[in-house]
Amino acid sequence: MEFLVLTPNSLLSYTKLKPIPKSISHLPKPSSFIPKASLSIPKETVLKSFNERKALKIISGLQNFNKDNVASVVTAADKGGATHVDIACDPELVKLVTSLTRLPVCVSSVDPSAFLAAVEAGASMVEIGNYDSFYDAGITFSPEQILNLTMETRRLLPLVTLSVTVPHTLSLPDQAKLAELLEQEGVDIIQTEGGKCSNPSKSGVLGLIEKASPTLAAAYSISRAVKIPVMCASGLSAVTAPMAITAGAAGVGVGSAINKLNDVVAMIAEVRSIADSLGLSINTESELEERAFRL
């Protein structure tokens, strides 16, 4: 399948995405934007755990602006042994999160212009992705849209680590093809997704494996098509996270398994379980802090 790559000014279908406040054609056209915050954490540092194939990103959710919940998720990520956190693209939220952790902070959006203030506030990584809320509204993303969003983001933020999620709505061959094109556009990380509607027919371990199978298949296919790191996300657990690495992923992204929990201690325990399954080490200070949470 061949993809037609449109220029930002001709991306007509982009304006149909209602949650996006304005189309790319209305964005300012600076040559690039180099925020001070983007220089504080070198790209090599952000990508270190990916290069070691031990990245664990905890995702609070693209549409989650609940500061208390985000703070709990980020605290769990920090104390549980994660390597990155992924939050909604909001500068005030970024400031809150950077006050809670030294982990690299990723912000997710489908509006390139929204990244600027978030990166200036302290985000060290941006991601075009976490499309679940749009799927709920019946909105899907074409390869052309993803490519144009990527080109605009890279133009605005040439030095910031960029991750792009390949939609699960594409066939596996088309996912791999899109990943190749994204790599050519200078993307640093490709993230997979497995489909929000994946309801396993089995319970227990069999159900966990069944739920993760779509994103594991995507990680396998895409990792063999590109040289850049692949992050496997959607429906993963402590059981299936190691399978993602075996399939070819350089890291895993976990969201609902953590943010659906109501207790920060339970969140920490779940992050710790996934980190342990990946062989991530937990420092003594984090262990002591976790014990304090339990008291």
UniProtKB/TrEMBL annotation:
Gene Ontology CC annotation, any one: plastid
Major localization listed first in the record, in broad terms: plastid
Coiled-coil stretches noted in the UniProt entry, renumbered to this chain: none
KW Transcription regulation (keyword) present: no
InterPro entries, per the entry: Aldolase_TIM (IPR013785), Uncharacterised_Ycf23 (IPR007570)
Keywords: Plastid
A Pfam family: DUF561
Location(s), subcellular: Plastid
Database matches in Gene3D superfamilies: Aldolase class I
Family: Belongs to the ycf23 family.
This protein's name: Uncharacterized protein ycf23
